[in-house]
Amino acid sequence: MSHSLTVKGMHCKSCKMLVEDELEDMGATDVNVSLDEPTQTGTVIFNHSNPEQVITAIEDMNYEVSR
Description:
The protein is α+β, with helices and mostly antiparallel strands and 67 residues long. The chain has a domain at 1-10 and 37-61. It contains 2 helices and 4 strands, in the order βαββαβ. It has a 4-stranded antiparallel β-sheet with strand order 2-3-1-4, with helices on one face. The longest helix has 13 residues, at 13-25. The chain is globular, with a radius of gyration of 10 Å. The relative contact order is 0.33.
């Protein structure tokens, strides 16, 4: 099942890559992170059996997550 999150505080391509790498390291599949630099917001789409674990990991990276 695919999940989608809005992530605030992502301001550059490095932020995008950090989130992608973290999700892939957690075993998430079909990871797609899009970034809107002017609003410092990203959209994260992924497949993972425990989306709460993914949310916690992103928040631990000091980003704000909303569904």
